[in-house]
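fyi for ur records
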Amino acid sequence: MILTGPAIAAAVAAGEIDIDPFDPSRLSPNAYDWRLGDTLRVCDGDLDAAAPTPFTETRIPGGGLVLEPGALYLGATLERTGSERYAQMLNGDRTTGRLGIWVHVSAPLGHAGHAIRWTLEIRAARPVRVYPSMTFGKLVFLQTFGAPASYQQLGRKYTATDGIDISRLYEENPAGAA
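which gave:
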């Protein structure tokens, strides 16, 4: 079950959902409009699942930054979100999609108990200028069923994420870095 905008606002007021910073005008009928942070990591060279991803980091200036096709960008949400009660689903939206921006297609689920600034995978179909703090997608909250299980208490590799995080698949790969 997806929470409505008014239900999200009520859960924020009750302390059941944390959105920081929270702006009630960003609520829509079934979601919260999240924004792009001000920093991007550009993944450099060939990527290898058995090694840390090399990258360069750049701040997005107020006048914007042009994303180029063929590059993989990692960004972060401006908002830090979380809930012990609700799972989250983060997606791009039609406004960014219509600019040829694919954002966060591979891992939209945020587990209950995971309080983070989301790391975003971003690709551009054509050169497109993006700006810091621009609306970039929608976040929905989902009612969970069954015994509560907090992601933060499981001690997984991404529990401490508070910004842009490269893939850590190499930590699981026997051929990867030790």
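The mean pLDDT is 88. thats all i got for now
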